[in-house]
């Protein structure tokens, strides 16, 4: 009979990935989750507060982005749970784990775009950092998730960068 893990209160995970590898991958994914959530907050904040001649297009673009990010947060957290780890979920945990800086003022529309380029590129770097552990463990599911996140954030950064004067 299998006993529950006291940290996660779930039955042991036996998916062909060693415990130490699952923990290393989950740690990397926790950073990706924090970055993604921080980018979600920043993008949503900018959606609410953008002004100027590009208001309509940026307002709409930012909404499309934060809706996609909300789905991504769930997928990343669920992968962490699939690996048998606990997904972080508090603001303080995200602040500790994230490489995406918080924005408290209301920048100009152009500055919002520039800040979102930087933030999307930070998320790409974090996603890329998860690969070594996933590859060592032959964790194709995580590699696939991380590849998709990199593709989306690289394309978003490119599209945003194209809007900067």
Describe this structure in words.
Belongs to the Dps family. It comes from Euhalothece natronophila Z-M001. GO terms for molecular function: ferric iron binding; oxidoreductase activity, acting on metal ions. This is DNA starvation/stationary phase protection protein. The protein has 165 residues and is mainly α. It has a single domain, classed as Ferritin, core subunit, four-helix bundle (Ferritin, Up-down Bundle), CATH 1.20.1260. 70% of the residues lie in helices and 0% in strands. It has five helices and no strands. The chain has helices at 19-49, 55-82, 91-97, 109-136, 140-161. The model has no long low-confidence stretch (mean pLDDT 94).
Compact overview of the structure:
The chain is mainly α. The chain has one domain (about 20-160): Ferritin (Up-down Bundle), CATH 1.20.1260.10.
The CATH class assignment is: Mainly Alpha
Shape: elongated
Question: In the CATH scheme, what's the topology name?
Answer: Ferritin
Query: Could you spell the SSE succession in H and E letters?
Result: HHHHH
Mean pLDDT: 94
Helix content: over 70%
Low-confidence stretches: none
What is the C-alpha radius of gyration, as a whole number of Å?
17 Å
Q: Tell me the CATH architecture.
A: Up-down Bundle
Strand tally is 0
State the fourth-level CATH superfamily. Ferritin, core subunit, four-helix bundle
GO molecular function: ferric iron binding; oxidoreductase activity, acting on metal ions
Pfam families: Ferritin
InterPro entries: DPS_DNA-bd (IPR002177), DPS_DNA-bd_CS (IPR023188), Ferritin-like (IPR012347), Ferritin-like_SF (IPR009078), Ferritin_DPS_dom (IPR008331)
Domain Ferritin/DPS: 27-165
């Amino acid at each position: 009979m299998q006993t529950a893990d006291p940290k996660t209160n779930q039955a042991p995970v036996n998916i062909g990935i060693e415990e130490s590898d699952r923990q290393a991958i989950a740690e990397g994914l926790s950073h990706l989750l924090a970055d993604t959530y921080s980018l979600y907050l920043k993008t949503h904040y900018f959606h609410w507060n953008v002004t100027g001649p590009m208001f309509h297009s940026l307002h709409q673009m930012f909404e499309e982005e934060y809706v996609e990010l909300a789905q991504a947060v769930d997928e990343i957290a669920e992968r962490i749970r699939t690996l048998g780890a606990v997904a972080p979920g508090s603001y303080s945990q995200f602040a500790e784990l994230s490489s995406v800086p918080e924005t408290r003022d209301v920048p100009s529309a152009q500055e919002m775009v520039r800040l979102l380029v930087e933030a999307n590129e930070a998320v790409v770097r974090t996603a890329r950092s998860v690969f070594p552990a996933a590859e060592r463990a032959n964790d194709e599911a995580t590699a696939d998730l991380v590849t998709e996140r990199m593709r989306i954030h690289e394309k978003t950064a490119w599209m945003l960068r194209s809007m900067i004067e």
